[in-house]
Amino acid sequence: MNPLPEMGVKCEVLFTVNGETKKLLAHPMERLLDVLRNELGLTGAKEGCGEGECGSCAVLLDGMLVNSCLIPVAQASGANIVTIEGMSAHALMTPLQEAFLECGGAQCGICTPGMILAAVHLLEKKPEPAMADIRESLAGNLCRCTGYMQIFEAVARAARRRVAT
Amino acid sequence: MRSASLQERHIVGVSVPRKEGWNKITGAARYVDDMVLPGMLYGATVRSNVARGKIGKISFDPNVAWDDFVLVTAKDIPGKNCIALILDDQPCLASQTVNHAEEPILLLAHANRHKLRKAVESISIDYEPLPPVHTIEESEQQSTIIYGTDNTFKSYLVEKGDVDAVWKEAAHIVEGEYFTGAQEQLYIENNGVIAAFDTEIGVTVWGSLQCPYYVHKALMALCGLPEDKIRVLQVETGGAFGGKEEYPSMIAGHAALLSIKSGSPVKIVYDRMEDMVATTKRHPSRTRHRTAVNKDGKILGGEIEFTIDGGAYATLSSVVLSRGTIHAGGPYYWPNVRIRTKAVATNTPPHGAFRGFGAPQSLFAMERHMDRIAQVVGISPAEIRRRNFLKRGQTTTTQQVIREEIDLNHLLDRALELSDYAAKKTRFAKENKEGMRKKGIGIAAFLHGAGFTGSGERYLNSLVGVEAGADGNVRVLVSSAEFGQGTNTVLCQIAAEALGLPYESVAIAQPDTTVVPNSGPTVASRTAMIVGKLVQSAAKGIRQTLTKAGFLGDDYTPEQFRAACQEHIAAHGALKSYARYEAPGEVYWDDEKYRGEAYAAFAWAVYVAEVTVDLTTYAVTVDDFVALQEVGKVLHPVLAAGQITGGVAQAIGFALYEKVVWQNGRMMNSQMTNYIMPTSADLPPIRVFFEELGNVHGAHGAKGIGELPMDGPAPAIINAVEDAIGVRFLSIPLLPEDLFEALPPESHEQDVPSSARGTA
After folding, report:
1. Which of A108, A138, A141, A146 to mutate to test the interface with B (most CBs of B within 10 A)?
2. What integer pLDDT is reported at residue A132 of this predicted model?
3. Is A147 within 8 Å of B650 when comparing Cβ atoms?
């Protein structure tokens, strides 16, 4: 549930989400997560903890990996936001998705959108990550099902395939 | 001779893609909080803030427009005010007294979630306090009775041989007392449901849950509606681990009551804090061992006392206790044993199902105690286990004869080899003489019974269906739920193989009580073994029907199968086949004496943990983990390994990270910020290995797998900690502050000012 009680006046927010310009009225302190999910119907970002611990609400905001539960929508004004739904055309998606399927990187799936975005964020910066890089860059995304091993393997496999092509 | 055909090609044993995998990796999978129904309201729960008391005046802040809210109290319950499960003692809404903090009392619904939250805070409830009971010890003292006549939900006694005669023969009598704490399941998706009521249709519930028919049964009693007026659908479920076994009946009941009262669909999704503070956890436990061994370390007999804290209501404690009781003796041969166990009442929220279900608790004690016995006898941890392992033909504590070809010595040898145990042991002994980082290595050997205990599967009487369409596609009809473990995939593999069809031709129906039969709850490591076998039988039934009707030969292509289905459906209508559980003939179980064949099969394992104890930070890190198990046929290697790595990670949390801090019966650290589960940076490489022995009971020889990896890591790790620093820890979780307090002051680093030290 939202941490905010009844909020004040709504303001106009203009930003780009998955390549499309969006203009909407929202309370400035409304969480970006709620705006994405409830106003824009982008339910790929999930709420796990509401306090920035679990990373299941992760999105890319101007290329940064952020927890959308911690971003007031006013702060996202003017930003370029990418959610899991907007990633389908990204060059890293096919290798990552294939590797996640092959390696068992997704079990219950609730952390998976955030996990994949964290992996994209890593591989964009570091196309050939060492295991320590993978572990560190996913440390803000909690997974209770896999024990992470198969996620590490999936990210490493995707990176190898990407580099090979 | 037939040519090699599709019917001989294997799908089982191959890592095919997860059925719902694509939706999960694209973010398209729809969980309950992703669903919105027209006119839907949001529901919230007003809970008690005392552990025990009589409910007094309830005041509503006059500044809130209460007419805009839907309010439900216990008086609005159309049926029986209980969560129907085993004893039906837990109310859905407290009406006169509360027995634990965060017990639900009132329900509210409103279209605006912000207003709802404020409204919950604008209700104040007076209580006439009653003395609470917070621990196992307080409950045992019985100075305050909070349940029945003796605060005991359930007790069991297992007796084998004559334990009273063994003490005088013993070379050593080894005693120990061990404790495990509560643990939160911490699925990443919180509990959530949507309920919609319609006077014609009845109540429909969509939820994140493990057991659709548990919710179905509970709602019938609560709503006073017949079977056909309750419909339960499981939607994509973001982790469960037992935490969505019995609790969904409560939250579904709440949403149903609000929907009945308002006439609108109502969604209740907990936030993390509410989920942690109010829902079930793993039962805290205490185990006492008194063991007689001969001079060689062979167990002559012993007494085991195992006690769990059930919380305020009986819920599932009797069955959790049962599994803990049967596993208390570990994978060892006890010629004489007496096991006394009980589940006691305290004024905390009821503890409930969590992966392992009592076994991780009693096995933690057993495996710590084995290391203790080894020390007393003066032999190695490996040797003490070797001398006492159960062998084929011997009997367990419940006098179940081990019929499997299990060779635990072989498992132990292989685990020691895979972990490079001997070399590490020598190296650590040498290296630990210097420095502040001490290394250790520990073993745990254990077993886990698959399926319901004793006569449980007979009572469940599970039914499974398989349906073929005119297009030749097949649907598996089960109430077994997917929540990450791979139910969808494995059951489709089994059906595809039984029918000789490609994996892609088989799908699984969404668990919906109007569509699927009751194949039992998705618990107890029973899905692959018990339900899988029934799916196999039902699928074979389709094939037999088509063959008998003359539409299908012995050998066929998918196209011929499709044509056969089409002809059969045109001639006879729907093509379905059902299979019902039949108890294997030799199963004998005595519920009174707690004696007999406790489980149709056991999975067996030896795990080895390597740790570093840092005497500067007091942190324990696990550096390497070898998990070797015998689980029968591995149906899907990737999914099976995923069950093991995930279970080991969760058990590392149980051992070293996850501490529920209680104050007046309430969890104080109900956030992910202060209840810490392992992250990707905290875990060692978890190396998974399987041995495969056949098992007659499961599909293709599969046994249970889901719970097993929860049992062994904690004792292996704490054994390794003792190996590293020589301190005997008896309790988990073991956090740095516990280490700090336990170590003698001279071992604390010298540059820490004495004023900053704890009062160790």
Report:
1. A108
2. 97
3. yes
Mode of pairing for the β-strands spanning B53-60 and A80-82 = unpaired
Contacts of B210 (CB under 8 A, 6+ apart): B234, B237, B240, B242, B244, B245, B248, B481, B483, B521, B522, B523
Write out pLDDT tens, residues B120-173.
999 999 999 999 999 999 999 999 999 999 999 999 999 999 999 999 999 999
Phi/psi region, residue B184 (left: phi>0; alpha: psi -120 to 50; beta: rest), is beta
Whether B26 and A43 lie within 8 Å, measured CB to CB: no
Which one of B272, B643, B679 would you mutate to disrupt binding with A, by most A Cβ within 10 Å of its Cβ? B679
Residue at token pair 């084998």? B160
Closest-CA distance of chain B to residue A5, Å: 5
The answer to whether residues A82 and A100 belong to one domain is no
CATH class of B405-449+599-760: alpha beta
CA distance B508 to B455: 28
* Cβ-nearest to A106 among B24, B30, B686: B24
Cα-to-chain-centroid distance, residue B32: 22
pLDDT at A6 over 60: no
- To test the contact with chain A by mutation, choose from B680, B686, B687, B688 the residue with the greatest count of A C-beta atoms within 10 A, namely B680
Distance from A156 to chain B by nearest Cα, in Å?
14
Record: contact A142-B679, CB cut-off 8 A: yes
Q: List the CATH number of the domain containing A139.
A: 1.10.150.120
ipTM value, please give it. 0.96
The answer to whether the Cα torsion of B629, B631, B634, B636 is positive or negative is negative
Whether A60 and A26 share a structural domain: yes
Q: How many CB atoms lie within 10 A of CB B76?
A: 16
Collapsing DSSP states into helix, strand and coil, what is residue B467?
strand
Name the band, by pLDDT with cuts 50, 70 and 90, for residue A9: confident
Number of domains making up chain A: 2
* A34 and A76 fall within a common domain: yes
pLDDT score for B748 = 65
A68 touches chain B (CB under 8 A): no
What is this structure's pTM? 0.96
- Residues A147, B648: Cα–Cα separation, whole Å: 7
Name residue, tokens 């310009």: A21
Domain B6-30+462-580 in CATH 3.40.50.2020? The answer is no
For residue B657, list chain A residues with Cβ-Cβ distance below 8 A.
none
Q: Which residues contact B80 (CB under 8 A, 6 or more apart)?
A: B88, B221, B222, B224
Q: Calculate the alpha carbon distances from B8 to B4, B11, B12, B559, B703 in Å.
A: 6, 9, 11, 16, 23
For chain B, domain boundaries? 6-30+462-580, 405-449+599-760
Q: Helix, strand or coil for residue B586?
A: coil
Instruction: Please give the pLDDT value at position B744.
Output: 80
Interface of B with A in 223-242 (CB under 8 A): 236-241
Which of B34, B116, B686 has its CB closest to that of A43? B34
Interchain contact, B117 vs A46, CB within 8 Å:
no
d(CA B668, CA B277): 8
Positions in chain B whose pLDDT score sits under 50? 1-4, 751-760
Q: Six-digit token pair at B739?
A: 């280490």
Tokens of A123: 């591989």
Is A48's CB within 8 Å of B647's CB?
Answer: no
Chain B: residue whose CA lies nearest to A36: B34
B648 touching A (Cβ < 8 Å): yes
CA B727: distance to chain centroid? 30
pLDDT single digits (tens) B690-710: 998 766 778 888 999 999 999
Tokens at A121, concatenated: 């964020």
Mean pLDDT across chain B: 95
